[in-house]
Structure prediction request, 80 residues.
Amino acid sequence: MDTKAYVLIETNIGQTKEIVRELQKVNNVITVDPVTGPYDIIAIIQAKNLEDAGKIVTDKIHSIPGMIRTITCLSVPITD
Prediction:
């Protein structure tokens, strides 16, 4: 089963638009939404497993210039 994660992103002032454009180029990023509140962007990623999701965040997302910090929230499927 694939792993889905919500990445809450805080950016440097004035860099949100450019970071949104860069995130849209990253494989496995399925949604990128600029938002208001304590975070500037929420991105949704989908990967084969937890390890791959972590690599996407640390290798691809954190390397984009203008990032201040991220919080990654993994989606947890509920089964009966």
In short: The beta strands are 3-11, 29-34, 41-47, 67-74. Residues 3-74 form a domain with the Alpha-Beta Plaits fold (CATH 3.30.70.920). The CA atoms of residues 6 and 58 lie 14 Å apart. The chain has one domain: 3-74.
